[in-house]
Amino acid sequence: MPMTEQATGAQHPQPRARNGGPSSASVEHLTGAQSLIRSLEEVGADTVFGLPGGCILPAYDPLMDSTRVRHILVRHEQGAGHAATGYAQATGRVGVCMVTSGPGATNLVTPIADAAMDSVPLVAITGQVASAAIGTDAFQEADICGITMPITKHNFLVTRAEDIAHTIAEAFHIASTGRPGPVLVDIAKDALQSKTTFSWPPSMDLPGYRPVTKPHAKQIREAAKLITQAKRPVLYVGGGVMKAGATAELKVLAELTGAPVTTTLMALGSFPDSHPLHVGMPGMHGSVTAVTALQKADLIVALGARFDDRVTGKLDSFAPYAKIVHADIDPAEIGKNRAADVPIVGDAREVIADLVQAVQAEHTEGNTGDYSAWWKDLNRWRETYPVGYDLPEDGSLSPQQVIQRIGELAPEGTIFAAGVGQHQMWASHFIQYEQPATWLNSGGAGTMGYAVPAAMGAKAGMPERAVWAIDGDGCFQMTNQELTTCALNNIPIKVAIINNGALGMVRQWQTLFYNQRYSNTVLHSGPDADGNAAKGTRVPDFVKLSEAMGCYAIRCEDPADLDKVIAEANAINDRPVVIDFIVHEDAMVWPMVAAGTSNDEVMAARGVRPDFGDNEDD
Q1: Residue 574, exposed/middle/buried by CB under 10 A (0-12, 13-18, 19+)?
Q2: Residues 152-161: what's their mean pLDDT?
Q3: Active-site option among 11, 41, 140, 231
Q4: In 136, 312, 333, 464, which residue has its Cα 20 to 30 A from 544's Cα atom?
């Protein structure tokens, strides 16, 4: 998971842990269900994405009377989870979803795992069968605490009404502090139905939960010395910087040091793409400059990043000349994949602020880094191997061009949510991200079906912003039913379907590594007798499907219509808009580091191995 920091939940009025019970708070006599809704109101939850069922039903009755919590009825529980994640990523607040027991709860497993991988503050509330029936294989019973134990930061099984209020307070506190993550609260039906007393704030008892936020001064000084002594440093920025609200501090540090900055897939927007110090995104499909900068660096300063396999490639050949400064709020991540020469445990905002002061102190003593030769190399690579694409020779739509024009024509501050696959990588490269929290995607889990519900959640949380979902035709078919939710709840997102008629990234691998044997990757039509896709048919028809769900829908196949269609979508704000972009099926994502290979083997394009003009391995 990307390393993440404490500031995420700061916008919510979080209750404080106390040894004693509430003193001056008024006491009310409520049901457990009423206590649940009151608790959500008090922790500042203003939006809940959910779907009722038998065991959670008691909670839905008092929810109807709440004037502080908006409930958005989804069409599938997976949509509720991803919507809560999108809400959290866009707003910085805790996302909340609520579903019933058994299959309702298990349908949340994927979005919970997704939130865990990307360190998203999420509270998932599930109904459970009555406490006396737990363990009897009762109707719609599932041990959701046991199922989600490996993918939650913490989870609770509540069987008493009097435990509901403090459990909700603890869940929000855990989800939003330290390294953010998902917390599950499973509540037995009889606990919701029983009577209890309610007072706020409740006492919280979380022994052993004390996230370290302030970094050790000695480690900060050591890191500053390495930065000023280095010849080829790189600031390797992960999603933790975004979670900590440390983007302003990052800009100060980068400009103070003059070191190149590379931002991971989860960190896009934490440092402006247009900034001259930004060298791009690293990783399997990162820019040649970013990938190579890490490989040839003599110092990597990792801030809220986790050295995941998509960034490092073959781990034992990653950055062979580099010393490592690794700053993270989660001590378990430091040294997990790459040994750190200077480990720093702390909140990214505090770490970077302290680093700024320590580097300034080094400069005052006359110790400044000289990176002129390094920037000469970096600029040569940047100019020689920019991220780009070729237009199709047959005059059809280029998917890269579609995504690039959506980004260029979008209103300032637009939030983009992407599914997973080729369109996700193109969206990371060909849209400029200048502000934090404008790029949402499933980075760690790689969840198909993420984009539409995540965009819905982002728009619900940030209604004044334009929100585009960049989706593939494969991803879109997994969760498009949430467009109905958008249409009925006045959530006017815009969806671009990058429709190449195939599972694009899988097809790309089949092209490159499986001798162009396209086994089960064609989507829009069934195979004929020879196993080839029937031409001229598109099932489903996304325009008709979207219209049936209450959306305004357009199909675009001609590049001459591209700008007009995008402008039309941007002008419609009273309902969801879906554009079915029919794009060339053979477009590929480049650059690329093949899975399991070294980053030294990065390919700038098919058959194009970069020549870096040096033979030294210094």
Answers
A1: exposed
A2: 98
A3: 140
A4: 464
Is 616 in a helix, a strand, or coil? coil
- pLDDT over 70 at 532, yes or no: no
Determine which one of 5, 77, 141, 249 is catalytic. Answer: 77
Report the share of the chain in percent with pLDDT over 90.
Answer: 90
Beta bridge pairs of residue 303:
237, 327
* pLDDT tens digits along 107-146: 999 999 999 999 999 999 999 999 999 999 999 999 999 9
Closest to 578 measured CA to CA, from 601, 613, 545, 611? 545
CB atoms within 10 A of CB 306: 28
Stated pTM of the model: 0.93
Question: Mean of the pLDDT values across residues 514-528?
Answer: 82
Question: Could you tell me the sign of the dihedral formed by the alpha carbons of 598, 333, 184, 146, in that order?
Answer: positive
Which candidate, 247, 268, 237, 260, places its Cα nearest to that of 432? 268
Residue 256 has pLDDT above 70, yes or no: yes
Residues 256 and 359: their CA atoms lie apart, in Å, by 8
Question: CA–CA separation, 122 vs 96, rounded Å?
Answer: 6
Q: Looking at 117, 172, 189, 198, which residue is catalytic?
A: 189
591: preceding bond cis by omega (within 30 degrees): yes
How many residues are there in the chain? Answer: 618
Residue 502, beta-bridge partner list = 522
- pLDDT reported for residue 536: 58
The string of pLDDT tens digits covering residues 167-219 is: 999 999 999 999 999 999 999 999 999 999 999 999 999 999 999 999 999 99
Please say if 494 is a catalytic residue. no
d(CA 440, CA 451): 8
Q: Is 318 a catalytic residue?
A: no
SS (H, E, C) 302-369: EECCCCCHHHHCCHHHCCCCCEEEEEECCCCCCCCCCCCCEEEECCHHHHHHHHHHHHHHHHHCCCCC
Rounded Cα distance between 442 and 95, Å, is: 15
77 catalytically annotated: yes
Taking a C-beta distance cutoff of 8 angstroms, is the pair 523, 582 a contact?
A: no
Ordered DSSP codes for 46-82: -EEEEE--TTTHHHHHHHTT-SS-EEEE-SSHHHHHH
Which of 1, 456, 505, 592 is an active site residue?
Answer: 505
CB atoms within 10 A of CB 177: 24
Q: At what angle do helices 504-513 and 422-430 cross, to 10 degrees?
A: 100
Cα–chain-centroid distance for residue 47? 19
Q: Is the pLDDT of residue 534 over 70?
A: no
Q: What interhelical angle do 217-229 and 348-364 show, nearest 10?
A: 60
